[in-house]
Predict the structure.
Amino acid sequence: MKSRTPIYGLIAEFDNPTDLVAAARRVHDYGYRNIDAYSPFPIHELDEAMGIHNRLPLLVLCGGLAGCVGGYLLQYWTTVIDYPIHIGGRPLHSWPSFIPVTFETTVLVAALTAVLGMLALNGLPMPYHPIFNVPRFALASRDRFFVCIEATDPQFERDATWRFLETLKPRSISEVPH
């Protein structure tokens, strides 16, 4: 039934999103933290059930603030310090003229932070993942739902975790080989 070779984790298959969310919530409540869930479409309740908190909005805010400050300081340095030119009695630090570029650098750096942050937080690009070694996982893009408990979880113990997954009443449980 189960081999004793090192594995990536255990994966349980479910028939519908309601069972998946309930299983993910029970897995998280039981104390497992290195978990992941897979479904053919987004399930918004799944993040909360797994205890996942999105850090991307904070990264984008920080990127936008950095772009704002950076764009403004660049203009200030070039027009006031590095190359001051007095034109028509206008003050060197004419902040209203700095607003368009400051806005554009805010949007540019925030957008770049969003893209790069999303890639980094999702661990992308990832051309290979051990979960692809499970034959039934091909159904995750069609009509099946999966929750995986990784072997790197401090609470993971192969037999005890297998028995716990059986209490969730999944369609099937599989080992995920490396």
Notes: The radius of gyration is 25 Å. The CA atoms of residues 37 and 147 lie 4 Å apart. The longest strand covers residues 7-14. The chain has a mean pLDDT of 93.
